[in-house]
Amino acid sequence: MLAVLVFVVVAGAVVAVVVRAVRGREKREEEGGLDLIPYLILALAVVAAGFALAALARASLTPDRIIGRPTGELAGALAALVVAAPITYLLWRRQARRRKTFPATPGWPVYLAIIELVFLIAFLTAVSQLADFLAGGGEQADWTDLLIYGAIVVFHWWAERREVPRGDIGDLPRLVGSGVGLVALTIGLIGTLEWLFSVAYDALWGLGDIPDPAIPIALAAAGAAIWTWRWLPPWEEKPNVLRNFYVGFVTAFSLIMAIGAGVTMIATLFTFVFGERRPAVDHFDAFPLALSFSIVGLALWYHHGHRLGPGRGGGRRGYEYAMAATGLGSLVGSTTALVAAVFTPTLAGTNSGSTLLTIACAVIAAGWVWLIFWRKAQAAPRAEEARALSRRIYLIGMAIILGLTAAGSLIAVLVVVFRALLGEIEADAGSLRIPVTLTLTAGLATWHLFDQIRADGAGAKTIESKPFAVTVICSHPGTLATLFPEEATLRVLYRGDDAGMIDEGMASAIVAAVDGRSSLVWVDESGFRLAAARES
Amino acid sequence: MDEERRLPGWVLPVVGVVAVVALVLIGLNREPQQFDPESPEGVVQSYIAALVDGDFETASSFWAEGDCVPASIEPTGGAPDISATLVSVDGDDEDATVVIAITDNTTDPLDGIYESQEWFTLVNEADGWKIRQLSWPYYDQICEMPA
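YS: structure for the whole thing
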């Protein structure tokens, strides 16, 4: 009785304080603004209230006590609820009113994304624990966590459908949900496939150690449901920077996953054929996991790769530069490792053939990845490419990282050289092996990157000095005007029918074909045709 | 139409408060699960119940015979104020390991809620299961307890 009384009194006090603060502020505000702070406070309150409610349900409903009452847990959960619940309720109502007046403030999607991230992770953790318990491995089954975290997520999905987030970051909650679902699905699928392959491997050759499939299967099922719900339905808006970044990142990451697993399997095969002999059963025991990684990676790459959009717009450019960056970084690292492995003296005999073969496979794969994706970037018109944010991030970011690496390793080389010159130590070529190699490889890569930055700058200056005019005859220009550089003067003549619509892919292709020259462009149902125009 | 179908603003808070109060009442009124006192988990339950009640004489009667016993039958921190749940029971007819999760009902609000898992190794002697190795609570000991 006393606890309920304290609950009511404290809750009433919190309500009064929040109402007073909110009302005073509302009078002063006339514009929506970012509206981030109230939403961040609301998110904090919802997280505190959600976890407190879960703790309360856990203490009250699961599991059976063998001694005593859960007064400590109940007191802690109640205290958190008394503070967080009124704040949640009042701020929720306040923000709901504000959304009617200012429907496009970024606070709403940011809030939904935070809640989605926190409670989906909590929900998936509860799914794993329950699956482990049901499989006989777990110690406790806190099924109430599943209900409460799931209910919070579903409630916010419902709220999101009622009031769809707008603006540039309106996609954020769905992307966060898609990402969390995809991670769970990926982990679950890899674990499930590894289990299946391990069972088959064990049946054929005897493996002995088969992983438990309960958690991976549960994660795959839950992740698939979340991902299907959040990612697959059609999107209301066209892809924006945020969604392009997500798709590009996931496509690049999944391909890296598949290539990494593929290189592991090829290296394992080579080391079995050319390296030291071990029993085949032991040598290939990593295959179930590597095969699972490569299959899941390829499937994700295929799915997301088809959503990168046509041309070099959308997420494709970011994906290709991310792959080029990964390839270049890996090439520098693996080349250094290869030189170190080749020349490092061993206690007896030669260096391990397996190590050399594995690193050599990594060098070849990294070099191949970098060449493929860098050539794609080089094939695109530099005028358009040089202005792309993803190219600048790639060139400048990698130049800084590799430049600092080269500088650091050069310092390490010079320390040894100067100590030898000062007569403190005998010159030891062995200790210089890795820093010298790293200085050379990272230095070469940095030089290449700075050379490209310089060339991009020179190209931009050339373009800036040559304004040009483009006349387009089409039904609708789409995003064409946004893709041309500032030096272009674009004139659109409408055809008056629907046969000459310009989509994003065609817009990129037109910009590439014009290539900074004054042109006439005719668009019809068969595509576009281009003719050079007199320079004005 | 949507406006007409909306619930009054007070409904959700009232439902929330009722749910919280219901959970608290359920939590406070649930009787502890009763295990067979002849089973390993039942012995651990009886042992902890005796400790919580401050009946250290009864608690020490659950100790297995051995050449190493604590110097005092009273734990270092006195009678514990805890609640506990059973985590797992493993073993066979001769030896068993009982794991329980203990929540310390501390009275210091800034000390937080202290939770831990404790292992009890039991051996089946002529007069039933006895606790041979204690990981909780702490006692002043005169020697290493037998492994």
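YS: worth flagging: The longest helix of chain A spans residues 429-464.
IM: good catch. Also Chain A touches chain B at residues 3-4, 7, 53, 56-57, 59-61, 63-74, 76, 78, 81, 85, 89, 93, 139-140 (CB under 8 Å).
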